[in-house]
Specification:
five-stranded antiparallel beta sheet, Hva1_TUDOR, single chain, DUF2945 domain-containing protein, about 0% helix
Length: about 70
């Protein structure tokens, strides 16, 4: 079984950040390189990146699936 999980828009996920554990909802899935906050983020169909809107702040973060865990 692969260690990478598959996520989709609307999934509730959690991840660790400098500020501690954060949770949010996936708003977009990127399967090709994309510009975000002035930087190019690399993504592909085999290694997508996910945009997640924080539950607590409305902050949007971009992460690979390895950094995320599904939350109920």
């Amino acid at each position: 079984m692969s260690s990478a999980s598959t996520f989709k828009v609307g999934d509730h996920v959690g991840w660790n950040s400098e500020a501690g554990h954060v949770s949010g909802t996936i708003t977009k899935v990127h399967t090709q390189d994309f510009d975000y906050k002035g930087h190019t983020h690399h993504a592909s169909p085999d290694k997508p990146q996910y945009e997640i809107k924080s539950d607590k702040t409305d902050h949007v973060a971009a992460h690979y699936g390895e950094a995320l865990k599904h939350i109920d």
